[in-house]
Amino acid sequence: MALDMREPIESGCPDGFQYMHPVMRKNFGQWKYHEHPRPGVLLHVAHSGDEIWTVRAGTQRILDLFTLRKLNQIGKEIGEGYVRFTLRSNIEYMVADGAKVEPLIQALEEAGFIVGGTANSVAMISHTQGWLHCDIPGTDASGVVKAMMDEFIDEFKNCNMPNRVHLTTSCCQINCGGQGDIAINVQHTKPPKINHDLVSNVCERPSVVARCPVAAIRPAMVEGKPSLEVDEKKCICCGACFPPCPPMAINDAEYSVLSIWVGGNHSNARSKPTFQKLVASGVPNNPPRWPEATAIVKQILSVYKEDARDWERINDWIDRIGWPRFFEKTGLPFTKYHIDDWRGSRKSLNASTHIRF
Amino acid sequence: MPKTIHETPMLDELEKGPWPSFISGFKRLRDQHPNERINAVVGDLLGQLEHSYETRKGYWKGGTVSVYGYGGGIIPRFSEVGDAFPESKEFHTVRVQPPAGNYYTTDILDQLADTWEKYGSGLITFHGQTGNIMFIGVDTDNTQHFFDEINDYGFDLGGAGPCVRTAMSCVGAARCEQSCCNEHALHRALVNEFTDDVHRPALPYKFKFKVSGCPNDCMNSIERSDFAVIGTWRDDMKVDQAEVKAFIEAKGRQYVLDNVTSRCPTSCMTLTDDDQLQVDNSNCVRCMHCLNVMCKALSPGDDKGVTILVGGKRTLKIGDLMGTVVVPFMKMDTAEDYERIVEMAGDIIDFFAENALEHERTGEMIERIGLVNFLEGIGIDVNPNMVDKPRECSYVRMDGWDEEVEKWYERKAEEKASA
Ligand code: SF4
Ligand code: SF4
Ligand code: SF4
Prior knowledge:
Structural class of chain A: alpha+beta
CATH architecture of the largest domain in chain A: 2-Layer Sandwich
Number of strands of chain A: 15
Bound molecules: iron/sulfur cluster
CATH topology of the largest domain in chain A: Sulfite Reductase Hemoprotein, domain 1
Largest sheet of chain A: 6 strands, antiparallel
Shape of chain A: globular
Oligomer: heterodimer
Shape of chain B: globular
Distance between the termini of chain B: 73 Å
Number of strands of chain B: 16
Helix content of chain A: 25-40%
Number of helices of chain A: 9
Radius of gyration of chain B: 26 Å
CATH class of the largest domain in chain B: Alpha Beta
CATH superfamily of the largest domain in chain A: Sulfite Reductase Hemoprotein, domain 1
Largest sheet of chain B: 5 strands, mixed
Number of domains of chain B: 3
Strand content of chain B: 5-15%
Strand content of chain A: 15-25%
Structural class of chain B: alpha+beta
């Protein structure tokens, strides 16, 4: 059989230059400034005086072939045939001819795509795989995002927040959705339920033991079979043992809930990059539209929009007003679970008389 | 292949509302696509997804699928409820590395769509969280055919499992005025040096490269990569005072005071009485804030290069970690500069391969062994830019103090001599 097999060409990452708009190739590294003529549109001007216009649009991210071909057709017939995708999976059309911007917007909107997502918008939510094709998900991802973007579409289209807002979702506690100004992540609240009949066949026991962040797992004989045992007092319900050992079922229709975190910011602008902080939990994992999670995100966004100053990201804003006021203004309850007890956590406590009254 | 139309009352709710619906797209593939295989696969996929929505559980399990000659790059998915939904019971994802910077012509996208139409489910994402093009839903046999065809016209698989993963770079020099390096060249120089480590997972765990052209770090490289390369500059930023005046004219003086000078984290900007913006460049930390607000008036300097941070990652296993500065500044102009950075990446990957525990990320290894041991392992000297602040606790053995002080003075003398 192997004789018929084709050897792979290990070409790695392709050169993007061959697919780049000629004006961008020509002015590579020679851009002078940009403007934001309207939501969803960027104008970049090079030192040479050349211009490149960008029209950005949100899509459903999980594209079907019809949708991809429609996006391509718009790019070919109305644009100049050059596109790229942003980190948050928006499509961008680049054209040298500014007169093509309006027709592009029109064609995209007619086809149901949402032009926006630039500057101070609520950007497209970056999301993970979920029930659609992940092997360990506690919730869906594309569905949560669709339901939320239906609600935040005006903020996506109008770019009138104090600064940009990045939302992320993650469907397990590994949180591959990443850091966000607001993150909506699965949170398990009960230890794994172990199917002891399967453990010894399916799981490499020492590596499962090693995977637990709090050393709560130990090998044990259960009903005469080699299996694993969890010290439920120690277990923090993180789900890290589930991927290497699926019989340690962590996902639960009732007890896997959603938590909401705020203030993650990857940029170095003003303050150093920050991680997101827990603000709410116990939010029902409620398909198909997750209204409870959306309501809390909406509440946080409306207070932020009202209260933050120009250019303050959510973390900058909370730094200025303080956490007590954040909880007061958003009406979210502050509980013992908000006080960190993970390694290094003592540095997160207030060791001063800096208190706002 | 028989197509089954499952009732999907819950998913149907996701066809409502103004945002484009992925469920409507799935139904188009099921109902309107001329290829019966695609109709059937997506028909059963919808059935399984509805079942997940009803029971709040996922039903995919992993396995082993790869293409000839490689060990990774495919995310195998076998259904646990394949009897009820047989047409989508093998539903693997093919991870493909995008062109650096994510540029495409509509022609190449059409070509990818044509190939995918022949072999796959018809579902694609640009891009997954690691940065791959995700071709979602192909059975085991067709995986090889699909790969062979796209590989012939220049696309290659990304990483999956404990290996060097697909890298990412920002739009950068191609369109952004803040760019301080050639992000795409760096991206390709780094990841393409390690194709063997991409395709044949043999590291303790994953290793990611991300390249951002400036400290705005649009690629989240500090938070999300083991090896973050970020463009920056050493000389003075450029201030076009005429544009400063124009900005004040348009926005008002108070706007500049409130949003530019008073937001500078090191208070190194002042607006003079005659509306000149003055910068104490020796205290500017290149945070980018003022350049973002006034991109016409302010620009990075000319003496450009990169900062390298190592060890960023997400939660598993010891919690989220940011990358740490290991190289405060490095020029990135010549072929030798590129060789140096690639060599350094190789040293770090080798050290990681030898010293990390199974399933431990670079940042976790550094946390366990300490930054100093890591630096000694890869042959990089300590530098005060690597810390927020020096040690606070006196419980430390320091009987090598005099030697270390000697090294510091030697290095300083060398720097002076070579300057
Ligand atoms: S859920 Fe997390 S803490 Fe609990 S046993 Fe598994 S790995 Fe350990
Ligand atoms: S990281 Fe900097 S150079 Fe790259 S796209 Fe963002 S702002 Fe531009
Ligand atoms: S880049 Fe940041 S630190 Fe430097 S002058 Fe501007 S605001 Fe200040």
